[in-house]
Write a structure and sequence with these properties.
single chain, Alpha-Beta Plaits, four-stranded antiparallel beta sheet, alpha+beta
Length: 141
């Protein structure tokens, strides 16, 4: 399964790893262990961040690849399944079926947003609380 890993390094730990020369070694060993298809390095949320795409055959591949990042860089790591254009179901010949209408019989469709009128069960809210946004984030490993 293709995975996307986001590795965020706190500034202090990243600076220390650059000064002592361990950053390339730590990242390089993790990229090799994961057999990364691609790696991108960006700044996000004020931290050095690596976005790594790799194919995971078995979940047992994760610990040896990420432990050096935890220990050497105090990194926060997020892993999520990902797909590219070739992985799309319609390209692979798989069929997709539309979702069932789960609106209880006799209930009216949501009229909360004019652009969603007629779409059963769709409700719009003016804002999302930080708690619900946190629930939508992928779980860190």
């Amino acid at each position: 399964m293709r995975m996307l890993s986001k590795v965020q390094m706190p500034t202090e730990a990243g600076n220390a790893a650059i000064k002592d020369g361990s950053l390339p070694e730590i990242l390089g060993s993790s990229l090799e262990a994961l057999k990364a298809e691609a790696a991108y390095f960006i700044a996000e949320d004020g931290m050095r961040t690596a976005l790594i795409v790799f194919d995971m055959k078995d979940s047992s591949e994760i610990p040896p690849a990420v432990e050096p990042l935890f220990l050497g860089l105090n990194a926060e790591i997020t892993l999520v399944p990902a797909m590219n254009a070739e992985d799309r179901p319609e390209r692979s010949g798989a069929t997709t079926t539309p979702a069932r209408d789960h609106t209880p019989r006799g209930s009216a469709p949501s009229q909360d947003r004019p652009d969603r009128a007629g779409h059963p069960g769709v409700r719009a809210t003016a804002s999302t609380s930080s708690r619900s946004r946190a629930a939508q984030r992928p779980m860190a490993v």
